[in-house]
Amino acid sequence: MAAAVLRSWGRVVLKIGPRGAACLTPRASGGLRQKSTVQFATRPDQPKLAYRKVKGKSPGVVFLPGFSSNMSGHKAEALEEFCRSLGHSYLRFDYTGCGASEGVLAECTVGSWKRDVLYVLDELVDGPQILVGSGMGGWLMLLAAIARPEKISALVGISTAADHFVTAFKSLPLEVRKEVEEKGEWTVATKLNEEGSYTLSMDFLHEAENHCVLQCPIPVTCPVRLIHGLKDLDIPWHISMQVAERVLGSDVDVILRKHGQHRMGEKDDIKLIVYTIDDLIDKLTTLV
Questions:
Q1: Over the stretch 35-71, which tens digit does the pLDDT of each residue have?
Q2: What is the structure's pLDDT at 68?
Q3: Whole-model pTM over 0.70
Q4: Please, which contacts does 36-45 make with residues 24 or more away whose CB atoms are closer than 8 Å?
Q5: Dist. CA 97–CA 88, nearest whole Å
Q6: Is the pLDDT at 26 greater than 60, yes or no?
Q7: Mean pLDDT lowest for which of 22-31, 73-82, 263-272?
Q8: How many whole angstroms separate alpha carbon 90 and alpha carbon 228?
Q9: 3-state class of 27 per DSSP?
């Protein structure tokens, strides 16, 4: 079972990378890490999607990155090594306009990224999947679970940003909102990129409203795990609490980390994510 495999996987070493984030290095391989190769999915009338895939057992795991992020982050790579050690399938990919995928970021919307996730579920993976969504990826995993319930075994949200762009904009003072609407775009300060900010058009914000999930019950009944840091300065932890309250299923846990920040990339954060997924795999395979 997965728990037994994890005990042997405990020989994997968690190391701190050059930017203070954790990465996983198997001792058994002498420090050499196996990495999946980048592949490209060709879609009719749509930009090519870049992805990395490991074949294996069900349930598989699919990682959904955060806003303007990509599949090469430490969490995504750590989960690939973990799934490989368990023998379960794993897929990580870049949204349209991000990372190695084709497309223009400024032309993308929440809806277009949702289509990316649904394409992955429909065309690139087989069998039931555990979706692991980070930041905006947590919002997209909810949308995917609503649209493809038969393909989803469980959800793991990391700093889940459900409805975030819309609610953050609406929380601005009225005068600021009017200025943004007249200008046609909103520049948001952030510490998550080198530029120190990102810009959203009003068209992006209006389109995002069509995908909000927190105003009513969320028709998701699979197991849901929501991990959030109390020191997250980008996405308030109470959003995960709101998601938990609105999800219709009863198997829902919220895990709050006292010193956790938005990226959840510290050594212990990644260990928690890994153990959470392992517990779900064990639970799901036992049920079968």
A1: 899 999 999 999 999 999 999 999 999 999 999 789 9
A2: 79
A3: yes
A4: 36/80, 36/90, 38/100, 41/119, 41/123, 41/124, 43/119
A5: 28
A6: no
A7: 22-31
A8: 23
A9: coil
CA distance 233 to 44: 39
Contact 280, 154 (CB under 8 A): yes
Place of tokens 């990580």: 92
8 Å CB contact between 144 and 219: no
- Cα–Cα distance, 77 to 27 (Å, whole number): 16
State both tokens at 145.
């679970």
89 with 40: CB under 8 angstroms? no
Dist. CA 189–CA 3, nearest whole Å: 42
3-state class of 75 per DSSP?
helix
Rounded CA gap, 158 and 136, in Å? 9
The CA–CA distances, whole Å, from 40 to 50, 94, 210 equal 5, 10, 29
pLDDT in tens, 87-144: 999 999 999 999 999 999 989 999 999 999 999 999 999 999 999 999 999 999 999 9
Q: Indicate the DSSP class of residue 120.
A: I
Contact residues for 113 (Cβ-Cβ < 8 A; gap 6+): 95, 96, 136, 140
Closest CA to 249 of 226, 272, 281: 226
d(Cα 159, Cα 250) in Å, to the nearest integer? 20
The packing angle between helices 267-287 and 2-9, to 10°, is 150
3-state secondary structure 198-255: EEEEHHHHHHHHCCCCCCCCECCCCCEEEEEECCCCCCCCHHHHHHHHHECCCCEEEE
Spatial separation of the C-alpha atoms in residues 269 and 271, rounded to whole Å: 5
